[in-house]
Amino acid sequence: MEALLGFFERFIVQIQSPTLAFLLAGMMVAAFNSKLRIPDAIYEFCVYMLLMRIGLTAGVAIREANIVEMLLPAVFCAVLGIGIVLLGSLTLARLPGIRKDDAFATAGLFGAVSGSTLVAGMLILDEEGIYYEAWVPALYPFMDIPALITAIVLANFYLNKQKAGADAKVALWPIIKDCLQGSALTVMIMGVVLGLATRPERIIEEFYDPLFRGFLSLLMLILGMDAYRRLKELARVAHWYTAYAFLGPLVHGLFGFGLGYVAHLLVDLSPGGVIMLAILAASNSDISGPPTLRAGIPTANPSAYIGASTGVGTPVALVIGIPLYLTLGQMVFGS
């Protein structure tokens, strides 16, 4: 009972948090058919600023961290990214009325990582005073890239098998190359490299940190507006996507928490690190994933996979998932 009350407390706090408030405000603005439009260039700039700050901070932390301690969580992230896509291929892809290429693309987004959810999770843990290793956000590409590659490979195998007499041959390197060259991952990786090779602490403290929350609030406003529009598109595709998008972040996050707990036992990953691993697993890509999947699975319907991800998955991960994993962390590790 105490745990349940704790969850609802965190749920209410999360709804009132600036991060969620801007997301919900964006959805309300779109619902009222407001003429407010925020240019794509501003959205991309906010995303790149946030990812650069995450990358720089993670690079600095990696430089000072024990690489051996990072190795197991990084492997677990890759396992989670691939496993979530494979799980989607065994569940969503087999439901009636679901096209397999759409299902693979959807599972790919849910296996990949949301930069906005990651940032929101970091801010909330900071506000709660919960310590987590500063290199944990740098695990982003270890989950993101394997998930997207797995989804594209599965879809291409399936599509090739549908062609009469065609062998299921898929060139892996071009897929990996496209993922690595994606703008979001490029910024993140560049930030990590600069954090490792240079001394960016001053620019982080004087420039990125003061602007961090402001950029996040604007990003959430844009995502809220887009989420409402995608919800309307999603209703025209299939109700199975809504069910998958609601349950997926919660189930995936529990898998992440479980593997994070194993890392806690084996390499002493902090309780905050375990919670962050759950948040990473619960999130679904809204930055690097969509353009990568559009190029890698051109036959898939964006209304299905982006609608499920942005319209349902992201709000569920933010509003329900984060309070759930914080409460679970409190139950497992104590207050």
Short summary:
This protein has 335 residues and is mostly helical. The longest helix has 34 residues, at 201-234.
Under CATH, the topology can be stated as Na+/H+ antiporter like fold
Measured between the Cα atoms of the first and last residue, the distance is: 16 Å
Oligomer: single chain
What percent of the residues sit in helical stretches (DSSP H or I)? over 70%
Element order: H for helix, E for strand:
HHHHHHHHHHHHHH
Characterize the biggest β-sheet: none
**CATH class designation:** Mainly Alpha
Give a count of the beta strands, DSSP E runs of length 2 or more: 0
* Low-pLDDT residue spans: none
Anisotropy-based shape: globular
Number of helices: 14
| Average pLDDT over all residues | 83
Work out the radius of gyration.
Answer: 19 Å
Strand content: under 5%
Task: Give the helix/strand class.
Answer: mainly alpha
**Integer count of domains:** 1
